[in-house]
């Protein structure tokens, strides 16, 4: 199974007043680079094949400067630069849609010490976990409705039928049905483009991404009667600490530093320590760069 990384540099490298995505949300640029390095190297070690979809600036940073060992690099995301930086997840969305083989997309702040597992990898559709944080999606939907966004009928029909959002987290996403992702990506971009004239500085990009990335994916899977196989169960999400680097010694062998954890000096230093222990030459290279 091919592992996929995507890096659209526009939101990560340009400060935006309402967007906490500058330097990927990390406390300092060096931790942003260390995260990409540790993520690439850890997945490369266990899967061998890892592709990067990025833009010219992203290639300059991750390939030419950091010399990360991606199996393949596709420089295509400059085509997204007419979109505002609030739409930080569209680099991922675009990357899903151009795949011609089974893949698993992982975020650049996720690290592993073992394979995800054949029981998941052999699935048509894969996602991180079933996301039961319904209030986030309710707030997201209200946020875009207040801005008079036009919603596709199939989204409204799905909510009318189930009375809840029933979504999956895209922290890990992919599967063997790569043709599904082509249609999903196109429909999501059609939705974004239809409302692009309504997007301004007060749009919460993270809330919008919950709809066009995660809710779209989940509704389209239901519409096509395709099962989403989750990497982690609801119980595991509740009980396990996915930000603990002690996980490398446990059964899940996976860490994902989400949201505010990336601004914590404690977690930044723990991540840096892993890079020093496992890939010291890359740590040295980053320190010399920043």
TrEMBL record:
<protein>
    <recommendedName>
        <fullName>DUF6734 domain-containing protein</fullName>
    </recommendedName>
</protein>
<dbReference type="InterPro" id="IPR046621">
    <property type="entry name" value="DUF6734"/>
</dbReference>
<dbReference type="Pfam" id="PF20508">
    <property type="entry name" value="DUF6734"/>
</dbReference>
<feature type="domain" description="DUF6734">
    <location>
        <begin position="1"/>
        <end position="289"/>
    </location>
</feature>
